[in-house]
Amino acid sequence: MIREMNLADTDRVYEIENESFFEPWSKKMLLKEFEGNSFLKHYVYEKDGEIVGFYIISVLSDLVEIFTIAVDKDHRGEGIGSALLEHLISLAKEKSAKEIWLEASTKNTAAVNLYQKYGFNIQSIRKNYYQKTGEDAYNMIRTIL
Predict the structure, then answer these.
(1) Which of these is catalytic: 55, 115, 129, 138?
(2) How many CB atoms lie within 10 A of CB 142?
(3) Catalytic: 129?
(4) Average pLDDT over residues 37-61
(5) Is 115 a catalytic residue?
(6) What is the mean pLDDT of residues 4-8?
(7) Is-above-0.85 flag for pTM?
(8) Would you say domain 2-143 falls under CATH 3.40.630.30?
């Protein structure tokens, strides 16, 4: 089940974020953005009462930007990432968005392949996007028709 995130979910969301990325959002940043940024939308994927995935997007005018999307490492390969992405795309359509933007590590082949499966195209490469590792990122865009 995918539902809006609530304050009680932040600890679990932080755990998933922290285990999924080498430059995760800090817990302080996650809480600040959850409580104070009205442009951000937060959703969690709950399975058997446990949060096993989430996404955070901004919705501004006709543009949706994916800030972060992640699935618990023990639940990858179960279609949860696809379900979250489908929900996100549906929400973007409801909000009359024309495009969805994201950055994905050039080394994260699984994520890039998933995004491409859902109609995202690589627009450019952002050099040294992940400064701690010097890793590049693809700027990817999906047009909504």
Answers:
(1) 115
(2) 21
(3) no
(4) 94
(5) yes
(6) 94
(7) yes
(8) yes
